[in-house]
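debug: dumping io for the single-chain case to check the tokenizer round-trip. Nothing else runs in this session.
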Amino acid sequence: MKIQHLMAFVVLSLATVPGARAAVLAGPITNAANGHVYYLLSTNTWTQSENEAIALGGHLVTINDDAENNWVYDTFGQFGGVRIALWLGLTDRQAEGNFVWVSGETSSYTHWSQGQPDNNGGGENFAHMWFPGFNPGFGGPYDRYWNDLSDIDSVHFHPVCGVVELSSPPTPLPAAATQPADQFMPDSAQLNGLANPSGSPTLAWFEWGTSLAYGNVTPPQSVGSGSNILGFSNVIGGLVIGTDYHFRARASNAFGVATGLDQTFNLSNYIPVVTTLAADQLTTNSARLRGQVNPRSSGLPTAAWFEWGTDTNYGNLIGIQDVGQGPSVSNLNVVLDGLMGGPTYHYRLVATNAFGAVYGADQTFGLGFVPVPIPGLPGVFAGSVAWGDYDNDGRLDFLLTGYPGISQLWRNTGSGFSNVTASVAPGLPGVYQGSVAWGDYDNDGRLDFLLTGCCAGSQLWRNTGSGFSNVTASVAPGLPGVGDSSVAWGDFDNDGRLDFLLTGAGQLWRNNMPVSNAPPAAPTGLSSTLSRATVSLSWNPPADDLTPSTGLNYNLRIGTTPGASDVLAPMALTDGLRLLPALGNAQAGTNAFVLNLAPGRDYYWSVQAVDTGFAGSPFAAEQQFTVTAPRIIELLMLGNGHFQFSFSNEASVIYAVLGSTNAALPLAQWTVLGPPVSLGGGLYRFTDTGAMGQAQRFYILRAQ
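debug: decoded output
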């Protein structure tokens, strides 16, 4: 008998049918003892197996006695050499511990293994028959016996397959089963179903709507007149994100109509989930922006980036990257540099796919000042401190005074600071309630310093190149000792020699040294390199009569018209004369970065050198650079907020699309829609849900 049934097996593969969840491995097979028809399904969960059973016109098997139990075990326990556990139509999913047959039959027969059912771990609501030969080494018996299991598709590394029972041979009435929807887009989805024509010409379709009343039907489609299960699908449009949609499959032939179970979906379940996290790794000029994106199960490629700026208009993008298309969380970390202390920076994470852009919450951080430990640096009050590169190595050193009578010179080593007072300025008196100031009074290219305060008097110390020497008696005889005072250098008579003003005594001291300071030559080799909205400026150091090139500092001028300084003012006259006896705005070094430049504009710039006597060179020959603006060549509205276009773009530059209903608004008030998505072939696409329902809308592209 067993051989006879195996010879009757028919394998129906649904591997290529859209929406199919299982295949019929064998059947129909008739049990001669009761005249019922049985099928064996491929590996699947209990719930999906029962759904397939309904599509076949029956349910998972109901076992009424030992004879039927043995027949099912002997007939289906092995298939293709594989030992199989078998799903039965027995479940307590409605009430724990109250097992009933899903077919509605009232059979009281059971064949549980010892200690079963036990709902081990919870959720074991479905009965199965053990696969042949199962023996864990304890308990038992197991062959032909039953166990309760959760809604999974394997047990002890063996597949679980459903056994379907029909009380009579299949009738010509068709069968229909509803399958999960897929291929979700912002306004559409594909509905999927299974149908069995049962040997008669059959049409299949879907009912769908926002409630169980449905109210909409898809066009009927032929699924033939065979006896096999076939998949069918239909795409529905005009959907709205955030709405629950119901649908079910239906099939009809000359013998009647079959209806599948209701299924639901909501497009909002496929919009990416975006979380902006707190920034970390803060330094004096940088911070790491952090966030998380889950593209969810939309199957749509998703990109993400950060918007940032000094207010909630943001205005800048950074870190655009692909975060995939599956339901897994991606962590995004992007270091933002070129920042400054003072402003409060705003940022948020943005993700976009075909459903549009999703914005994370706004986060803020401020750099302010970050403490830099200097081992051994004393804490003082009633003091003074001043920066100066006394050894012309291109690194700023500092001089510190304060209570209870401390004066210290600290050298910048490049990796920290070292107290060099004893070796470089031996005999330097400790003072407080005074002031210190650097200046090259003798125009030898080396910074000297003035010192005032209690209770050592006022002193002028000359930089000899190998250390400092107190020259007060010979160079500034009669210099009064003052406390609660201040001192400042400045060439008040423009004779090329630094004079000084002393408070506490109320005295101006004029410099009559024989050597006058000549300004440096102008820098050469000016160059600019653009990267998005940032420009890198560089130049070569010039010659100076006394100050070495490493001791020079620099002063930039940038404007939007020739000779202008409306972007960055130099605090110097056009001939180079400095208006402040201080370091230039670019300080030491021969390069500088300028951020957040406006696209589509010409910029003009120059630089001057400043020596240790604070004399400014002439400005170098003015240079010009242009931040290019992209030009939209063709814009096509696709509907539902989607746009396609091509444009002239600069290689390696990332652009953002900005939109507004008012073209006259300042750029900071336009909505940043994010970077356009490349479609290949020079075409791009962006989404603007704010365009829906608008009479007109304006768009621009901005380099980031």
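debug: round-trip ok. The CA atoms of residues 50 and 346 lie 54 Å apart.
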